[in-house]
Specification:
It contains 17 helices and five strands. It is of the alpha/beta class. The protein folds into two domains: 198 residues, P-loop containing nucleotide triphosphate hydrolases (Rossmann fold); 123 residues. A five-stranded parallel β-sheet has the order 2-3-4-1-5, with helices on both faces. α16 runs antiparallel to α17.
């Protein structure tokens, strides 16, 4: 991954390049921002540029031995940490990680877990990962200018792992750099956050998104612009909308079934939809809850008659024609609270059957407000 491969964000890329050329290279950076905007490929491009033997004014050279090794993500001084399952460490999934990154650079945790067939397991950076990190970083730099550790989603790091790394992040060995990539800054351990130089990565610019979607999928500009609007600055979301619409369609159908059963107070239907949600796997459950939260937001905003502020596809919009009035100022905060609470409970391995049945029953009450 090179800077030129990253969609938009030209000022951010130039900032990173200028900082290297000025010699300002923090020992720990954290790239944070919304999902799907290119934070991980940006971190990898930055790592490549740092270790390039013939840096250009706008990108790494692509010709030196370091760049050739970065092409395969197999540089001996480049290390990765990322959420895994089955109480393993990242190195045990490194071949799959490299294969996955060779296929796509814009993705989310659900995409990665599906790739490794995690099934119902949640992605975690386990406690024992800290020992592997400390062991690798205490070795001398092998051949590059810097030894670089990229940590994808530090918010998924077990507290005991994060606490063991505090001293290493604060005072790493000479010529060692941490690059953390976060999509949920609130859940990054504060003591880790405070030891990093933060860099906010915003949503991708609309025109850049339209151009990238049109080029990748061969879409007409009007269609590409429609997808860019709904994706709202996330290229990962745009890919999902265009390529992987099955999951979005499934979430929409599940949401409609849940809302209709709740509106009609159909207890049998409520039990059936709660049971279905309880059986789809925890990562899917969390993704569905986030989808539902987005739907509540969109239907609430659609009542304001400001169509440019609404991000819905045709089916979602058609359902909203009748459903949106049920989402109003009397219940929108309660919907946000109850679904956010359910998300936290699922993350904490709560009983999914109880959580979703309780959630469906609460929806029945809230829709009457």
């Amino acid at each position: 991954m090179y800077f030129r491969d990253i969609i938009g964000l030209h000022d951010v890329k130039q900032h990173l390049i200028d900082s290297v050329q000025r010699g300002f290279i923090p020992h720990a950076r954290i790239f944070y921002g919304p999902e799907g905007v290119g934070k991980l490929p940006l971190a990898i491009a930055y790592a490549r540029y740092l270790n390039c033997a013939a840096r250009g004014a706008a990108d790494a050279c692509g010709e030196c031995p370091s760049c050739h090794k970065f092409d395969k993500l197999a540089h001996p001084d480049l290390h990765f940490v990322f959420p895994v399952v089955k109480s393993k460490v990242s190195d045990e999934y490194l071949p799959q990680w490299r294969e996955f990154l060779s296929q796509t650079t814009y993705f989310n945790l659900n995409g990665w877990l599906n790739f490794i067939n995690a099934q119902n397991a949640q992605g975690v950076i386990y406690s024992k990962e800290s020992d592997a990190i400390i062991r690798k970083l205490n070795l001398k730099v092998y051949e590059a200018l810097y030894k670089i550790m990229i940590v994808w989603l530090p918010e998924k790091m077990h507290d005991s792992c994060a606490n063991k790394l505090l001293k290493m992040v604060e005072e790493p060995p000479e010529h060692t750099i941490f690059l953390l990539v976060s999509e949920d800054r609130e859940n990054v351990l504060q003591t880790i956050w405070s030891r990093c130089q933060p860099l906010h990565i915003r949503a991708i610019e609309t025109e850049e998104m339209v151009a990238a979607i049109g080029k990748r999928f061969g879409l007409e500009q009007e269609s590409a612009r429609s997808y860019a609007h709904i994706a709202n600055g996330s290229f990962t979301k745009a890919i999902e909308l265009i390529e992987a619409s099955e999951q979005t369609q499934y979430f929409f159908e599940l949401f409609v079934t849940m809302m209709r059963a709740s509106v009609s107070r159909n207890i049998k239907g409520i039990k059936e939809v709660a049971a279905e949600m309880a059986g789809i796997g925890r990562e899917m459950q969390k993704s569905f809850i986030l989808y539902a939260l987005r739907m509540f937001r969109e239907y609430f905003v659609s009542n304001l008659n400001e169509p440019e502020m609404v991000y819905l596809n045709d089916e979602e919009r058609q359902f909203g024609d009748r459903f949106a009035p049920f989402i109003n100022e009397k219940n929108i905060e309660d919907f946000n609270h109850e679904f956010s609470l359910a998300h936290r409970q699922i993350e904490q391995n709560g009983n999914a059957k109880i959580i979703f049945l309780d959630l469906c029953l609460k929806v029945t009450v809230l829709l009457r407000k």
